[in-house]
Write a structure and sequence with these properties.
two-stranded antiparallel sheet, eight-stranded parallel barrel, binds flavin mononucleotide, 15 helices, about 475 residues, TIM Barrel, alpha/beta
């Protein structure tokens, strides 16, 4: 029985929001979701986006495998016209798990097949794929890389949570070396090569991932990092600005997007009150967060994110996907949940507050840049009413496209349902049980990682994997 989600109609949802002092709007007119939008000169057939979600289901060398292809066939056939492919590491040592995609010259074949099968499934289901955009997210996991963390700046809160030696469980401290400026200079060229691989594989766009406290997000927050990549806004944004300019010049014809945090916030811990999350202790000013007030880090400060969106748009970035938080440190910011993931705390707030935070902060960026294509996040907790909220946000100019994450694992064909005016299938609508995250965090098998998907609603495939993962603990 859900503690928070009890809404039989979209109106009851917005009434609850009002009671909580929030601004979550809904409409029964979903037609705005079906309006095409032009992005970088390309027409995208509707406003529904499948968010990037790692399946942790590749082979050990980072090649897509059977379940990877299956996911993208289902996404392609689903009806959303923008498929934002998942995190693919630009170098093997920058992977966040042992079964993450790798995007380099050796992987062109697998990536081409992935893109082609996704597009073919769309064409088969919808006849026309000329208005479908498929991208791939270029990542370096930085502090969260396996087997060893690669740190961009010392973080007084995250360093003690970052294990640098698995045997002794020693954590990072001020003596742990940072990735050097020279290494970052070379990494810029690696990103350019990866972008070129994405183009060869037939992707329409690449996403330069700057979110969830992975490497490029940590660089944005690197206020205490010395040298040319740290300190001032110009230095902290140097990497992304230079990479965008290089890709624009060296890989012409490829659209450039970025998924970026607009608010990092503070990490949380399990608290004494039935495990509800509480903010960790921290010293002020907090100089290791982006989009966050240094003197009150539980509050967003959008001045730099808004500035960066403008700067990147001028350099040629044509689509922005906005998100919040850190999946390991404060998952309630990133994905408002009803049921806690196994490595986290119980939600410290009504999940609708988390949804409202996504909507409000995204609306602030969109209103500062009304002409830009901006994808919003954090919709899945709204279950059957996520598109009623998304359509209201589009109507009111609070966002340009609506991104669905967890809800796409359980119900990848939501786009077709909306296009055909049908209600979502209640038997497959994500209830934020967090089983997908539980699988992502399950590592105890020969590959060092279990594949993830939706065990309750895609049961034939993920039920047995879930059982095995839970038994392996
Ligand atoms: C299983 C899983 C894998 C994810 N992988 C990625 C990823 O590769 N890249 C990324 O930017 N976000 C990733 N996310 C975050 C989602 O894209 C999304 O932002 C988040 O789930 C909140 O949206 P939702 O409420 O619609 O689920 C992942 C989330 C889940 C649950």
């Amino acid at each position: 029985m859900s503690k928070y989600f009890k809404f039989k109609t979209p109106e009851s949802l917005s009434q609850e929001a009002e009671k909580l002092g929030l601004d979550v709007r809904v409409t029964d007119d979903l037609s705005g979701l079906l309006a095409p939008i032009t992005i970088g000169g390309r027409t995208v057939g509707n406003r529904m986006v499948i968010q990037p979600m790692e399946g942790c289901d590749c082979t050990s060398d980072g090649t897509p495998d059977e379940l990877t292809y299956r996911r993208y066939q289902r996404f392609g056939a689903g009806g959303a016209k923008l498929i934002w492919g998942e995190a693919a590491a630009v170098v093997p040592e920058g992977r966040a798990n042992t079964r993450q995609l790798v995007i380099d010259a050796q992987h062109v074949g697998g990536l081409t097949k992935l893109q082609t099968e996704c597009r073919a499934a769309h064409r088969q289901a919808w006849n026309d794929d000329s208005d479908l955009l498929i991208g791939i997210q270029l990542t370096h996991s930085g502090r969260y890389s396996v087997p060893a963390p690669i740190i961009a700046q010392h973080d007084p809160v995250l360093d003690p949570r970052t294990i640098v030696d698995k045997t002794s469980k020693r954590t990072a401290d001020d003596s742990t070396p940072l990735i050097s400026d020279d290494q970052l200079d070379r990494l810029q060229d690696t990103y350019v090569s990866a972008a070129s691989v994405a183009k060869q594989a037939g992707f329409d766009f690449i996403d330069l991932k700057q979110c969830h406290k992975y490497l490029l997000n940590e660089l944005l927050a690197g206020k205490t990092r010395p040298g040319k990549y740290g300190g001032s806004y110009e230095n902290r944004t140097r990497f992304i600005r230079e990479v965008v300019a290089k890709i624009r010049d060296q890989v012409p014809g490829l659209l450039i997007g970025t998924r970026m945090n607009i608010f990092d916030g503070v990490p949380y811990n399990r608290g004494p009150d039935e495990g509800a999350g509480i903010p960790c202790t921290y010293n002020l000013p907090m100089l290791s967060t982006w989009g966050t007030r240094e003197d009150a880090p539980e509050v967003a400060d959008l001045s730099e994110p808004i500035r960066l969106v403008g700067d990147l748009a001028e350099l040629g970035v044509s689509i922005f996907n906005l998100t919040l938080g850190n999946p390991y440190g404060n998952p309630h910011l990133l994905r408002p949940f009803e049921y806690a993931p196994p490595d986290a705390y119980q939600t410290p707030e009504h999940p609708l507050i988390g949804v409202d935070r996504h909507f409000r902060l995204t609306a602030d960026v969109q209103s500062a840049h009304p002409g830009l294509a901006i994808v919003g996040s954090g919709y899945s907790w709204l279950q059957a009413w996520m598109f009623h909220a998304g359509a209201a946000n589009i109507r009111d100019g609070r966002v340009s496209l609506v991104g669905v994450g967890r809800g796409a694992l359980s119900h990848p064909d939501f786009g077709g349902y909306v296009a055909e005016g049908k209600s979502l299938d209640p038997k497959r609508t994500c209830r934020t049980f967090s089983d997908c995250t539980a699988l992502m965090r399950a590592k105890n098998n020969a590959l060092g990682q279990f594949a993830t998907g939706c065990p309750p609603f895609d049961k034939a495939v993920y039920g047995p994997i879930y059982d095995e993962a839970m038994a392996s603990k």
